[in-house]
Amino acid sequence: MKVALIQMCSGADVDRNIVRALFFCNAAVRRKAEFVLLPEVCLFRGSLADPRRRRDIAQPVPGKLTRPFQEFARRYKIYLLLGSVHERIRGSSKVFNTSVLIDPRGRVIAKYRKIHLFRARLPGRSIDESENLKAGKKSVVANIKGFKAGLTICYDLRFPWLYRECARRGAQILLVPSAFTRPTGKAHFETLLRARAIVDLCYVLAPDQVGSSVGGVSSFGNSMIVDPWGKVIARADGRSESILMAYLDFSRIRRARRAFPAVIG
Fold this sequence. Notes:
It is built from 6 helices and 16 strands.
């Protein structure tokens, strides 16, 4: 299966982000991608501190935000991952950070609500996603063109139990759409991605945001595709929007798991 990871610099203008994301998706399809992945918060990367603004941004899933991508996936007969969108919660002022998987018929076949919400004290700023977001509770594994994929988001990388649970449920690919901050990304992003691949003997696909958000948080970029042996087989830079592509070979998973039968079914 040929995959394309979109590394982009999303902002606070939802309509512009949708146009930009579809532009990259179209470029990936022209390069024969069968599965296209967008990063975390691909359609809105800005402050959710204002409850009214939060309600305006968040939508049901499927719904208004996913519809253009459902139509795109159906038209080009591809799988498409919206790395994450803000999903409205009825009766709550908070929203879910939700990863959305769309199949070649344009159907939402899986959605994963981020379980581990980011908390950090960075130089000059503190971030706590739980102020505006509600945590999900369930792991999610879905079928993609003969592969089983575990859906996760960004900060989940620091919690190995979730990836082992996905692997035990049959996952051969681990999806990690991210908006990793530059300081933590520089220190840990590659190490954590490779660890997840090595421990669970899976491909890891991690499209990341790049550049600065409206709020001034700088993302690391360096989107990566890691094979089940822990080798980085494709990597973007930390400066520019780009498309990262590779073929996933099922035989690599078989060889790794035959050499180290460490994943308990």
